[in-house]
Design brief:
Blueprint lengths: L9 H10 L8 E7 L2 E16 L4 E8 L4 E5 H7 L2 H4 L23 E9 L9 E10 L2 E9 L8 H7 L3 H7 L3 H12 L3 E4 L2 H16 L8 E3 H8 L8 H7 L10 H16 L3 E2 L5 H4 L8 E2 L11 E3 L8 H15 L7 E7 L6 E10 L11 E9 L9 E6 L4 H4 L7 E3 L7 E5 L5 H14 L14 H7 L14 H7 L6
Parallel strand pairs: 5-8, 8-9, 10-11
Antiparallel strand pairs: 1-2, 2-3, 3-4, 5-6, 6-7, 12-13, 13-14, 14-15, 15-16, 16-18, 17-18
């Protein structure tokens, strides 16, 4: 036994057993379930091997009557002491829904992602203390419901530590379970519901709540992201929401609150459904699944190199792409920029040569007369077409400059997403009248803030002509952004 193990005295043991829902009397059973069969061992002693902060759970070391020692998580140990744990798969479980609801592995156009916080793991004895749900239509949030629900007894200490929910919060902000059941049922209606591990946990609690206070069962078809993950990523050892959040680069620090967990679950769900993951965060165990780099969204990527970009053919420039290309030509003329300074290029997959996304580029050509090699594309935005399988008109726009969300008007019809560990982006209908004005504002802002790829220089040979004109007359106004004399001119300082 390690030196940091803490042996519990008799008084601690009694309180400890109460805290973790264990029998207060001695003679605990350790139940090891193997398929339809269960082996029972008598536990003669146990101690705390490790405290799992901030959850408040612990790792036990159990001493069996035969002298063997077993390490086990306190929550799982508590669950194994309940009668429901001993039931075979085909036995009656009062918490299992006897309804026509079925699990689906599809992408519905309208759905609700939800999560609950409870006082424990047993749906027959424990209670729901928080509900959080968000309704989405074609991936865009349209409604949310967040409730605290009063409990019939004080909250266990470990639940308070895990969730931050206290008895005072429930007393002052909570509603009665009967009212909660009514509001949740009205919120669900007949929508498909989505959640992580809802088949084995959340749905059972909700169904029992409905049956108790509305006399009706939970009949909604559902998507369980835990089972979806098991189906898509069989190589993973664990499929917990926390594990998936880590793979997809999602901040999990504020988890264990219902509405936050719903947001995390929705993000994970969309990434799984569309086979897109955050670059650089894919573990070796599933890296082969995403060998095609075209399926990777890199929220923190730098500008792509030129060889990742291809010129589009006339046949490929249609619809919103054609309107955008015409807008770029107009801006080039109005801003007196070199030809092809602005362009829409395609990002082609190296696997099958298909176009996976588009990039709006500022192109600074070589200035041969000044002997400076500055040729390179600077990407303003990346655009993913047909972002949602359920709505082919939706496109995803990823501005490289996150300041856009503060400095220019983002379309009112857009759905803005702000990942914890990535750059903000938004979705919008490609036929929206707000799309072209947005592109114009975005391009002009990028031109205003553009930094030449060339190193700064004092001035070129045109300084006398520039002084006379009181403005830069260089033929490439992108390249001359590196000219210090131009900056002086624009600040009203003329030296010649």
């Amino acid at each position: 036994m390690a030196d940091n193990y803490k042996k519990l005295n008799e008084l601690d043991t009694k309180e400890f057993r109460k805290l973790h829902g264990l029998p207060v009397t001695k003679g605990l059973r350790y139940i090891k379930k193997n398929g339809k069969f269960s082996d029972e061992y008598e536990v003669v002693d146990y101690s705390v091997a490790n405290d799992l902060m901030p959850s408040g759970s612990k790792i036990f070391e159990l001493t069996l009557i035969n002298g063997n020692k077993i390490m086990i998580h306190s929550d799982y140990f508590a669950e194994m002491q309940k009668n429901t744990f001993m039931q075979e798969d085909n036995s009656l479980d009062e918490c299992v829904q006897a309804t026509e609801a079925k699990e689906i592995f599809d992408y519905p156009s309208t759905y609700i992602v939800y999560d609950i916080e409870t006082t424990g793991l047993d749906c027959q004895q424990d209670e729901i203390i928080e509900f959080g749900g968000i309704r989405y239509v074609f991936g865009m949030e349209t409604e949310r419901l967040s409730l605290f629900i009063k409990a019939s007894k004080p909250l266990p200490e470990r639940i308070v530590k895990l969730t931050g929910i206290t008895d005072d919060i429930l007393e002052n902000q909570g509603i009665e379970p009967k009212e909660a059941a009514k509001r949740i049922k009205e919120f669900f209606l007949d929508s498909v519901i989505i959640g992580h591990n809802i088949k084995a946990f959340d749905n059972k609690f909700i169904s029992r709540l409905f049956e108790k206070y509305t006399k009706k069962s939970l009949n909604n078809d559902y998507v369980d992201t835990l089972n979806l993950s098991r189906k898509k990523y069989p190589q993973l050892n664990h499929h917990r929401l926390e594990d998936l959040a880590g793979i997809f680069g999602i901040d999990y620090s504020n988890a264990h609150r219902a509405i936050v967990d719903s947001e995390i679950t929705h993000y994970v769900y969309e990434l799984m459904v569309f086979d897109k993951v955050i670059a650089g965060s894919i573990p070796d165990s599933i890296s082969a699944t995403y060998a095609d780099s075209s399926k990777v969204i890199n929220e923190d990527s730098s500008d792509e190199e030129d060889n990742d970009l291809v010129i589009l053919s006339n046949d490929e420039i249609v619809g919103w792409k054609k309107q955008l290309s015409e807008l770029m030509k107009t801006i080039i003329s109005q801003e007196n920029l070199p030809e092809d300074s602005l362009s829409l290029k395609g990002n082609r997959s190296r696997i099958d040569n298909s176009i996976t996304s588009y990039s709006i580029c500022i192109y600074e050509a070589d200035i041969i007369e000044d002997s400076r090699e500055s040729s390179r594309n600077t990407i303003i935005s990346r655009i993913v077409e047909s972002e949602l399988k359920s709505n082919e008109n939706i496109i995803r726009i990823e501005p490289r400059n996150s300041d856009e969300f503060e400095l220019i008007q983002i379309p009112c019809s857009a759905e803005i997403k702000t990942p914890q560990n990535g750059k903000p982006f938004f979705r919008i209908d490609k036929n929206s009248e707000e799309l072209l004005p947005y592109f114009k504002s975005s391009i002009l802002l990028s031109l205003k803030n553009y930094n030449s790829k060339s190193s700064d220089f004092a001035c070129c040979s045109r300084f006398e002509e520039c002084s006379a004109a009181k403005k830069c007359i260089h033929p490439n106004l992108l390249f001359s952004k590196a000219c210090e004399y131009r900056r002086n001119l624009e600040a009203g300082k003329i030296f010649y």
